[in-house]
Amino acid sequence: MKLKRLSDIRRKELRQAAFAVLEREGIAGATLEKVAAHAGASKGIVLHYFRNKQELFEHAMREANAVLRDAVVARLRQARSPMERLDAVIDGNFEEHLFLPPLCHAWLSLCAEVPRDEKLARIQKVLHARMRSNLLSGLRGLASPGETGDIALGVTALIDGLWLRLGLEPGSVSREQAIRQVKDFVAARLAMRQPATVGA
Amino acid sequence: MKLKRLSDIRRKELRQAAFAVLEREGIAGATLEKVAAHAGASKGIVLHYFRNKQELFEHAMREANAVLRDAVVARLRQARSPMERLDAVIDGNFEEHLFLPPLCHAWLSLCAEVPRDEKLARIQKVLHARMRSNLLSGLRGLASPGETGDIALGVTALIDGLWLRLGLEPGSVSREQAIRQVKDFVAARLAMRQPATVGA
DNA sequence: TCAACAATTGACCGATGGGACAATAAAAAG
DNA sequence: CTTTTTATTGTCCCATCGGTCAATTGTTGA
Question: Less crowded by CB within 10 Å, the N or C end of chain A?
Fold first, then answer.
């Protein structure tokens, strides 16, 4: 156990509370007071551990980012083949505790602020770069070098789009549906220009 | 010309101003005062034409929705085959004046509020239903009935995802790239289970 | 010409939010 | 058991925002 310092504990509690409030209230309605209340503390304490509101929500995004990353990394560790690495990324992105409307709503609110917050933009950029890199590591063994980038872009966009759909109309897309959607996409794109490898 | 009534003109000006402010400021920073300033009027006038802030932004979303719809419908009118209908939807969704970061930012901000605004949810639902219906009308002639729904879902998600990418990292995806991405997706999914029709 | 009406403004209000701060409680260090 | 540092609270302040309203300025139509 590393995290013992009280300040680390509080900071974690608070950024999780911030995220929880974001789920319900959106960025416009997410106030320091509500975050404090959700964490069972006073508003003052929030600003004691975070310089200001912006910093708090930046850390909230980092937290969410880390959770998603861990979900993928855990699966990635057990992947033995390129195809399994692809599946690890896909399955990880739709894990049961993650692919849920509230989480999506919060994520969406943060994404909407990206254009006006340099830090959020950076976090987003890192997340996307990692996702892309993970996909490429799987695709390199399955597609021609000229196609991998394109397919990776398509997969990330498709994943994001499915998340968006879940947020906009909860229930309109199930976890299994989403996973199959992405896997079918990969299969279709891979089968396209390499019919020879299909039967190999 | 139909729109002559001053009230209609003002309302249109104001909801466009609202959208413009949304592009720059996001939902949290979009204030009535700024909207009024952007339209060259006073705050009072905004509330004279719209009951409250919420209603204003609901109309802003309707406006944007209508613009996108018109872009697609115009292209749809000249489509003669199922495949052309599909292309009409795709091209329309990435039209040059539309597929731009600011517009995407505003749209994203509105989407982020959908979970907390029944009206916005309705508008979004209508938009999605129309998109789906347009896609299905093209797909019916190209894929088996069991697949059309799935492919339509994939296409809408992919389109949304590409928009999201543009918003999160302007410049990371060009208009042409986006269009090709979606068309390749359709082609790949269509070729998948119907290799016989490829050479037909 | 005048009365009714729509458009528009600016002042005002109550509520709320972010943030600063001093006071207090708790804990750690010595 | 002090002293010093850290945690925590509640209060206060100021800016801002959404929304109301009365007053003013056109505009129109009898």
Answer: N
